[in-house]
Design goal:
Largest sheet: 6 strands, antiparallel, barrel
Number of strands: 13
Distance between the termini: 56 Å
Number of helices: 13
Order of helices and strands: HEEHEEHHHHHHEHHEHHEHEEEEEE
Helix content: 40-55%
Radius of gyration: 26 Å
């Protein structure tokens, strides 16, 4: 009788196996945890780090906070073989850029050591399955972030244990496979120092110019560039992007060797998950970004506020660069309106004239919970209607003689028969 009841539930729920997801603003996001690399003192360090800690979390990602917010890179030493590799990278950097940052060359190796030693990948997975002190897991977070409705969850629970696990594996795969970590290093640098370095290199290059008149013009250009860029400071952030490694083999391994719920506690499985090195974070790449800090008589904001705005903008800038450079990290955003197409993204996300986006429709397979993203159109940013949503814009000194209408969203061109709730994703 119980088996018949399960079959009835299954048939009723899956009479239409493929459904179009309701066109609301709910959609599956990638998940992200952010961390800080502890470094030696630099000017205004406390204000910069406080600003990082208090910065708004990126709203296009789920906050996958595992509780570890920073680490001391000096605790992780390099082997002789690793030092040789760093030396080669340093020489290459010197030849290409005339600049050496040996710490940045070391950091990917040190971060990898930290991730492995602290079993960050295990902690990422434990977060996904609400792991308890006794080692048991559940599916509540996957159900919440997967946007599964009550009928889907009840159906899964009604099936046999093996069928329920199979559904959990397929439904949760997309979510877990899009779990990221960003590890960032900050610095606060005088613009005069950097501008002088650039000027000196440029002037040295001009020594080879034979034409006296041309050389004089170029020297004046270099000096004028120096004059315009030497004032104030810059908050610099160097961010390293990692992705949780998750595929069919790893997924099967997890559910076979380590999965257990609170009805079947096994201390050996708990110990095995705590100690295994079979889970890992994959290095995707890195980016640098900065934001200028200017202290002037016109700007009446407190010094701390000026540094805060610059720090958060530097973070936003490096996020935008990572998203544009690495397709796997690109977020999806919902359309606010369809005619014309608009969305709540803007300068904070690095939008520029001519940026192109694909428009996607979400379709969920009710048997598996897998969502298919079907392209229905392509749209282009209207360069006259880009939203300035950078952090702290409303707090900056107001410039005179400005007559610009307020924009609270970015408008796109070329879309046809679109509607709110469809998703957009930037393409090259």
């Amino acid at each position: 009788m119980k088996k018949i009841h399960q079959i009835i539930i299954f048939c009723v729920l899956f009479s239409n196996s493929l459904i179009l997801i309701s066109q609301e603003t709910k959609y599956r996001r990638s998940s992200l945890h952010t961390m800080l690399i502890e470094v030696d003192n630099f000017p205004n360090k406390e204000e910069v780090l406080k600003s990082f800690s208090n910065a708004p979390f990126p709203d296009k990602y789920n906050n996958h906070d595992i509780g570890i917010k920073s680490f001391d890179h000096t605790k992780y030493k390099l082997s002789e073989k690793e030092k040789v590799g760093i030396y080669q990278l340093t020489l290459r950097s010197l030849m290409l850029t005339n600049n050496i940052d040996s710490l940045n060359c070391e950091l990917p190796i040190k971060i990898s050591k930290f991730l492995k030693e602290e079993k960050i990948a295990n902690k990422m997975i434990a977060k996904w399955f609400n792991r308890k002190p006794d080692g048991s897991f559940d599916d509540l977070l996957i159900s919440e972030r997967g946007l599964f409705d009550a009928s889907f969850i009840e159906m899964k629970k009604a099936l046999s244990s093996s069928d329920g696990i199979a559904l959990l594996k397929t439904a949760g795969f997309e979510l877990i496979d899009n779990t990221f970590l960003i590890v960032s290093k900050f610095n606060f640098i005088s613009n005069e120092h950097m501008a002088a370095q650039v000027r000196d290199v440029a002037l040295k290059e001009l020594d080879s110019v034979k034409n006296k008149d041309l050389k004089e013009i170029l020297v004046k250009t270099v000096e004028e560039t120096y004059r315009q860029t030497k004032d104030g400071y810059s908050v610099w952030v160097n961010s390293f992007l990692y992705k949780l490694k998750w595929n069919d083999t790893i997924s099967n391994l997890f559910y076979t060797k380590y999965w257990m719920d609170n009805s079947n506690i096994d201390i050996n499985k708990k110990i095995a998950f705590d100690t295994t090195n079979q889970f890992s974070m994959e290095y995707i790449g890195e980016e640098k970004a900065s934001s200028i800090v200017l202290f002037s008589q016109i700007d009446t904001r407190p010094k701390e506020k000026i540094i805060e705005v610059a720090t958060v903008r530097a973070i936003d800038n490096v996020f935008a660069k990572l998203q544009k450079k690495y397709d796997v990290f690109k977020p999806r955003s919902p359309l606010l309106t369809g005619d014309p197409p608009t969305a709540k993204i803007g300068l904070k996300e690095g939008l520029e004239r001519g940026d192109k986006f694909e428009v996607l429709e979400q379709r969920m397979d009710r048997k598996t919970g897998i969502i298919e993203y079907v392209r229905v159109d392509k749209i282009t940013v209207d360069h006259n209607l880009i939203w300035d949503n950078r952090y702290g814009v409303g707090d900056e000194p107001v410039k005179t003689n400005e007559n610009v209408p307020a924009i609270d969203r970015t408008t796109f061109k070329k879309g046809k028969n679109l509607s709110s709730g469809l998703l957009i994703k930037q393409i090259r």
